[in-house]
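This entry is retained here.
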Amino acid sequence: MSRARLRPLALAGLVTVALALSGCTSGDSLADQYREGSSKGYIAGDGSVTEIPADERGESVEFDGTLEDGSTVSSADYAGEVLVVNFWYASCAPCRAEAPDLKKISEQFADQGASFLGVNVRDQAASAIAFNEAYEISYPSVMDVDDGGMQLAFSGSIPPNAVPTTLVLDSSGRVAARILGQVNSPSILKTLIEDTIAEDG
């Protein structure tokens, strides 16, 4: 193909990209935060809750990863139980703010059919361990910074578009609910977990 024909094609491609970007309206708070270019280091959600009826949930989410202590974990380890997955990292202010609530709720449900699993999207193991010690968090976290495998595993259903994001998976490993952003109301997360557990009752 000649250079003369390549130039119009390239220009058409740029126009297409520009039109696509112009579709990101100011009503999209996540897009607004990305464009503002602040140095806060994270895109915060608004705490909105999405619940998915059981008959509308997608496929089971399959994942595997390496925890902060070097051991491995997979979705098979949580088969048959409700799993709460929290995406976080240590220097994220909303992550620090919600940590005490997550600790308390995880302890309340420890023997009631729900487990917790963190997904650290930015830190190395030492930082994650220090964070967990500081906030007395006992549930493990997958270290996802190197390959993003956990984020990829969840991208097809209800993606974790902000940090923090908390997902509740049903006993079949399907996403039943999502809190996009900081858990502002512990009672809401508790209700989501209780309702998901009750589905098997």
About this structure: The longest helix spans residues 3-22. The longest strand covers residues 82-88. Residues 3-36 form one domain.
